[in-house]
Design goal:
The protein is an alpha/beta fold. It has a single domain, classed as Alpha-Beta Barrel (TIM Barrel), CATH 3.20.20. It contains 9 helices and 10 strands. It has helices at about 30-45, 50-60, 65, 80-95, 115-120, 140-160, 175-185, 220-225, 230-265, and strands spanning about 5-10, 10-15, 30, 45-50, 70-75, 100, 125-130, 165-170, 190, 210. Helix 1 packs parallel to helix 4 and helix 6 crosses helix 7 (about 175-185). The chain is globular, with a radius of gyration of 18 Å.
Length: about 270
């Protein structure tokens, strides 16, 4: 059975950054480690594909062959390091990626600009939606969810001239209402934060992704790509534990606890 890993990154820390670092230390990774990820992927002859490729190949008779040894790189939020670091590094290795951008972050002090996004799209990168303002969608009334999804889709399509067919969920928060509205406004798939692999039969509105964190070394990355069952089970259990904690605490208390931990990490 074909299993496709979708990797979820956020921002990259490195010497070539022209902005003061302001990212999330949990999800930020060093430029040197990202280079190792790309080098390893290239060495084992994996090819990067877009989510649109994955969608298209699913319905082709040769889909199994086309998707063999495929990997999908994704980035959430739209941090400037996606342009200054990730973009040129991906190009150097001949890879493509999908960038889920929160519209309110565009042209902010630490966000990418419209011109940078256009350049990336023209170079073969895919720019998709991470909503307008990055809220936890299940906490919102249906009309606000629709605004977040529909408006971000239309703004990105209007500004970039490219189809926006995929949504990444802020904070991984998911509900049946969010799914229904995403389908209604024209999205063809949703990327979640659920750990796991994707097959030709995976629900397009519940695509799995592996969250890449700053404390994951190259051996952990290899285990995910190689689908080492013991290591991937460990990360799945971590995801389930974190997801349960979010549900028990609720979003407000969870965020307060998380911010307290981040303050300690930053010093």
């Amino acid at each position: 059975m074909i299993k496709i890993p979708i990797l979820m990154y956020h921002d990259i820390i490195g010497k070539r950054s022209f902005q003061p670092y302001n990212g999330d230390p949990i999800y930020s990774i060093e430029e040197s480690l990202f280079a190792k990820h790309l080098s390893y992927t290239q060495n084992i002859r994996f090819k990067s594909i877009s989510l649109a490729d994955y969608l298209r190949f699913r319905y082709q008779a040769s889909g199994v062959k086309l998707l063999r040894k495929s990997i999908i790189f994704t980035f959430d939020d739209g941090h400037i390091s996606n342009y200054t670091l990730a973009f040129p590094m991906l190009q150097d290795f001949g890879f493509t990626a999908t960038f889920f951008v929160t519209v309110k972050n565009i042209s902010s002090p630490h966000g990418m600009t419209w011109q940078q996004l256009r350049e990336m799209a023209e170079s073969g990168m895919s720019i998709q939606s991470h909503t307008m303002t990055h809220p936890f969608l299940p906490d919102l009334p249906p009309e606000r969810i629709k605004w977040e999804l529909e408006t971000s889709k239309s703004v990105l399509e209007d500004k970039l001239g490219e189809s926006v067919d995929f949504l990444a969920l802020p904070g991984g928060r998911y509900s049946s209402t969010v799914r229904r509205i995403a389908e209604e406004v024209g999205y063809q798939g949703i990327c979640t934060s659920k750990a796991g692999y994707n097959t030709l039969k995976t629900d397009l509105y519940s695509l799995r992704r592996w969250t890449i964190k700053g404390n994951m070394d190259i051996s952990a990355f290899r285990s995910i790509v190689e689908m080492n069952p013991l290591i991937t089970l460990r990360y799945r259990m971590e995801y389930l534990t974190l997801d349960s904690l979010k549900r028990i605490l609720g979003n407000e208390r969870y965020i307060a606890l998380r911010e307290k931990v981040l303050r300690r990490m930053k010093g």
